[in-house]
Specification:
Layout lengths: L1 H17 L4 H18 L15 H9 L3 H13 L7 E2 L16 E6 L2 E7 L4 H4 L7 E5 L2 E2 H10 L7 H13 L6 E6 L6 E5 L13 E6 L2 E6 L7 H12 L5 E5 L9 H8 L7 E7 L1 H7 L4 E6 L11 E5 L6 H11 L3 E4 L8 E6 L6 E10 L19
Parallel strand pairs: 9-10, 10-13, 13-14
Antiparallel strand pairs: 1-16, 2-3, 4-5, 4-6, 6-7, 8-9, 11-12, 11-16, 15-16
Length: about 400
Amino acid sequence: MAIFRLAVLALLLSAQAGAAPVAADYSTDAQSIEGLVNANYAYLERFPGRRMPMTAKLRDEAAKVSSEPELIRYSERALTLLADHHAITGSSLKDSWAVFPSYGDLWVERRGDVFVITAVRQESPAAKAGIVNGDVLAGIDGQPASSAVAAFWSDLGATGDPARDEYAVRVLAAGRRDRPRRLTIRHGSSPARDLVLPNLYSEWRPQLPPITVTHQDKTTRIQFNDSLGESETIAAFDAAMAAARPGTAIVIDLTDTASGGNTSVARAILGWFVRKPSFYQIHNLPSEERETGIARQWVEQVLPRAGKFWAGRLTVRVGRWTGSMGEGIAIGFAAIGKRVEGSRMAGLLGAVYDYRLEKSGQVIKFPSERLSAVDGTPREAFVPLSRAPPR
């Protein structure tokens, strides 16, 4: 009889473990996000009291979440409070905001009360519409840009500030995934233009190979086509480097790597340029110090690759659409003494960890490691050498 009861209990526990979430489970998961962020987010010092800036409005929303789509929407809204382009959800809805900078084409900064476009992604809908650096983003969806930004935060029960407003305006300019963007652009003293632009989910460039190699004079340019997360990139890069002739100057172009990637690809690239194990970035895990009181930090190395070494000239180019792992490669090249030039990069914070919500299994993602150059400069603060515009 005892054996029978144990078997029944095991079956019940198994059924419960595999049971579909009920309404209360979604609410429980929604309410757990604040604690997960406070325990694991690597940049809590950005907020008053070193706590997630949760609002009363969103706490009330969390208690009412009762379905999978509602949890996705709530998770998106909660992570938006971090004003961190590196904090995203694993699932999305058809009308979710575009992930920036992966699906954005306008870099916008606040200058006083004006929002100025300081970078335009090459070959994007914005570039094709004639938007250029220095233009002003005057309006979004028929209202002044400043009003749209204020409404963005008000909808979350929050308020902005100069830094947070820059995050918001970039998200608004990238738009929602299921509809065109309606932007008002002002160029100098010319009359403002009302533009309707497709979002980058519906219109973007054709599928490209992992890298594009071009030759000019005695320079070989290797451009990564947002491919730092693809295993095929390693073989393509190896082939390009193996074909480079002695005396050639190599230019590694990371200006189109907004979606980041993984360290395997990064170390494979960097490994061509070192003769011995070399440090390339510092990791720090604040959550461990919060939990144990003991700080944890380590330095990652890149190792030479057998039969693969380039001793010739090398320049690395970066820009606003150099993001995450692209930024890691850039600081790695700087650490081994290579020239890194261009504009400021995306400035994405840290290394992202995945967190699976207990009841529903949904995933949220946010930076849990701080990353720095080997000289201690935070990766997001790294400044490349300036350069003249390409010929």
